[in-house]
Amino acid sequence: MGQDYKALASAIIEGVGGKENINSVIHCITRLRFYLKDETKADTATITDLDGVAGAVYNKQLGQYQVVIGQAVEDVYDEVIAQLGASYAGGSEEDTETTDSTPEAEKPTSFIGWIKYAFQLLIGTITGSMIPVIGLLAASGILKGFLTLFTQNLHWIDPESSTFIIINAMGDSAFYFLPILVGFCAAKQLKSDPIVVATIAGVLVHPSIAALWAAPTKGMPTLFNVPLNADLFGLPIHIPQYSYSIFPIIFAAWMARPVGNWLKKHLPLAVRSIFQPLFTVFIVTITVLVVMGPVISLLSAGLAAGINWLVTLNQAVAGFVIGGFYQCLVIFGLHWMVIPIISNDIAATGHSVLNGLISFTMVAQGAGALAVWAKTKNENLKGLSLAGALSAFAGVTEPAMYGVNLKYGRVFWMSNIGGAIGGLLAGLMKVDMFGFTGSLIGFPSFFSPTNSFNIWAFVIASAVTVVISFICVYFWGFSDSDLENARQAEKKNVFKDAVE
Q: What are the residue numbers of the active site?
C-alpha cells in the first residue's frame, strides 16, 4: 500500500505561505517548484524540518521556490495539486542541476586537496550519471541472483530451456545495454544531446562491434600484448568489450557537447538538423574507438596481469590487496579484463582462487550498503541501500556502489576495510572456489570435492567481512549529514562547463 502524503503536502503548502501565495507549481525528478506571489512568506526553516523534505531554496534566477523531496516527488506533487486544485498544476520539467543557487564549495589550495577534489568531481560525474538507472540495476541484480539460485543451486530451471533464456535476458538487459542508459543520463547532466549520445553508445554495443572483440585473436598483431582486432581506414585498433562499461560513454557525453556546439555554429541552418547529429556521432564514435578502446584495454591487461601475479605469489597478501581495492576497478569497468583469467582457471582446472577472493569484495560492498540502511533515517535512502545490499549479496555490486557507497565516499572505503580483512582471512585459510557465481548467493561454489573445510572457510571469511564492513560504515563511514554533501557533489562533474 502506498504512503499517504496528505499531511506532508498540507504542511508544504502552509510553509510556502498558503494557497493564496501560490501562482502555480511544477515538479522535476526530485523537486517541487513553486511560483509564489511573495517568496519572502515561505518559511524555509520549517519546510526543511518536515519529515520527507530534504531541503528547500529559492532560486532567484528562475523565480522558483524549490522543495527537495526525492523519489516520492510525483506522489507529493499529486497530493499538493489535489489540495490546491487542478488550475495550479504546471506539470513536470527536466531536472537541471544548474537551477540550484547553492554556492559551490571553496576550491582547494594544496596538491593533496586538489587530488581529493578531482576524485570527488569524477565520482560526482559517474554517480550523477548512474543514479537514474540504479533502481533498475538493483532489480536486475536481484533477478539474476534468484535465477542463479533456481538454476545452479536448486535446479528448478533448466539452463538450456527457453524459460532460462527469457528470464536471463530480463536480468542481463540493463547491464548489457548499460552504456546506452548511462549515456542518455550523462548527456543530460553534461548538457549534450541525449539522443545523439545514446546512439553513440548503441554503436559501442552493436552486435557487429561485439563480434569483433569476441572473435579469436590468434595470429593478430598486438600492441603491448593487446590484440589489434580491427582497423579503421587502415589504422590498426583494438575493440574491447563495451557492454557493461560506463566510463567510455561518459567521455563521449562530454565530448559530444563541444563537437555539437561547434557544428551548430558553423553548419547552415537548412542542413543542421541532419548533419549536426551525423557528424557528432561520427567524430565522437571514432575518437572513443581509437583512443578510449586501447587505453582501457592496456590498463585492464596490465591490471589483470598484476592481479594474476599477486595471487600466485602469496594468497594471503593477494586476498588483502584484492579485498581492499578490487572494487575500485569496477568504477571504471576495468574489472572485465580479469574475467578471462577466471574463466580460463575454471575451464582448465575446475576452480579459481582469484574468483574466490573477489567474492569477498562483493560481500563487503553489500554489507556497507546494509549499514547505511540500518543507520539512515531517510526513507528514500533506506529503500535504495537495502536494494543495493541485496543485489551485492546476489553478486551484482553496481547498485550498491553507484547508488550508495561511492555517493557517500567514506562508505565505499570503510566497506573495503572489511573486504581487505575478509580477503586476508580467506587467503590464510586457502579458500578456493569451484564455480563462477560469487558473493553470498554463490555459496555452493565453495563446496570442495577434496576439502570439506573450504565451505566453512568461506562462511567464516564472509561473516568476518560482513561484520567488519558493517561496523566500519555504521560508526565511521556514514551519517545523515552526508546527504547534503552528496547532493553538492552531484551538482559538480569533471567536465561541467569545460567548454561552451
A: 28
